[in-house]
Amino acid sequence: MTTGCSAKQSQPPQPAATRPETLPEADTTKTYGTIPDMRGTWFMVTHVIVEKETGKRVSNFSALYRIDSTAEQFLAQRFTFKLPDELEQDRRNADAQSREWKPTPVDLAALAHRLRTDPGKIVKAGFRFIGRDSYSDSDKQSPEGSGSLFAFEASDPGPGTLGAAAAYYAWTKEPDLVTGRFSSGALSIAAGVPVPIGFSGTFDMYRLPE
Question: b vs e for 44-76, b when ≥16 Cβ sit within 10 Å of the residue's Cβ?
């Protein structure tokens, strides 16, 4: 999926008021604290890690975000999208081998080319960007957030769920690459009964060429 915005302003947004404890509201983007420039189209690959009796299993998932900003805040959107067949096969091969999928610069260029003709559709979602200077105690003490530079949260209903949310903590930030750790949770519906599910792992977020 993706998030959408174009880059126009030369300065990152200014911090907002105190961050609330509730999940981000759909179709909103809020900024708290000091955040580096994140404008552009970003391809995220999450590596979900599950510990089993037979050992650690890794599964790879992807999402697409476009991020813009005004003088006050970031503006983020998420979109549906389809990976080029070759990239999808690479992702499946990585899953079958239980390894992290790392797309190459050639892969990213192919995806950027696909998006120029098939940009996808907006997904109803809410976003929150949080600088370390606005972290809560739980952010600072969590395994995902303890050594991170900044974070962003995303929430969306998702098919077959009563709601889903994820918190992504950036541990490294380069101009075109963000890496870090994440945790996510959702209320799934099984036989008409809400069932909580959760995942955690690492992520790589690549800024796509324009």
Answer: bbbbbbeeeeeeeebbbbbbbbbbbbeeebbbb
